[in-house]
Task: structure prediction
Amino acid sequence: MPRALRGVITVLCTPLKRDGSLDLDAFRKLVRFQLHCRVHGIATLGLASESYKLTFRERVQLAQTLVEEVNGEVPLVVGTGGESGTIAVEQTRAVEAAGMDAVLVTPPLITKMREADIFSYYAQLVEKVTIPIMVQDASGLAGPLMSIDLLVRMHKELGIEYVKIEAIPAGPKIAEVIFRTGGRLKVFSGYGGLYLYDVLERGIMGFMPGCDLPEIYVQIWNLYQAGEKGLAWDLFRQVLPLIVLETQNIDIYVSITKKVLHHRGLLPNPAMRPPGVGEADPFLDKKIRAFLQEIGPSLESNEKSS
Result:
């Protein structure tokens, strides 16, 4: 039975070898480090995973490897979606069989859609799969706008359990969705954690940051839930400069996340699949090293994940 989602669910990047192929050994190490940092869940094949550059076979490989490596320790989420309901159903069925707890489904990102079309797209998925669906409202990054009315309707008529809201502004929309569904539509935030200061106060069920600083995000969540809001915000302010740097666009986000992980010894290289942001930027590397040195006391060692 799928487990409920709550708390910090980190979205894994996709480690690559220099020849562009998947580095599954590095992927496993990255998964182990998330578990070592006591994240509440792990996701793969999101936008921050370069999922839009992966083949169908690679997507299935990553989903299966994640399930094997986690071995039931925490709930798992995998991203699916496509430019048609047929593609989304095929992707979702493939990863559903691997043993995920939920799927994070993007709407078509290129096709121009009315809200009735978006509703039909998710209705087709609900009809064909049994795994819980998290709707990705990523209109702040890519894809169509989704109104509050649409999200509420999908919850009430389709039984959608989760939504990840990355709209701009996120806070008011999150608050209204929670209010109008009585909290039954469980809301997660994303956008690299940029709006965390606002959305934690709105009653989110959890948030889905990147995988480069998992221990920091877990500390922020746990402190906030324990009523230590001042300490939570002090820690958030420490990492905010990096978050602002990362969240310029998706490719920059992936590039900097991989650079941070590389500097932490958690990735053998920061390679991205082309086309994408180039790696060579000595100034940025210097800034990342200085940032990691500054927040060093709050970071976990990666030795136990090896």
Summary: The longest strand covers residues 76-81. The chain has a mean pLDDT of 92. The chain has one domain: 7-228.
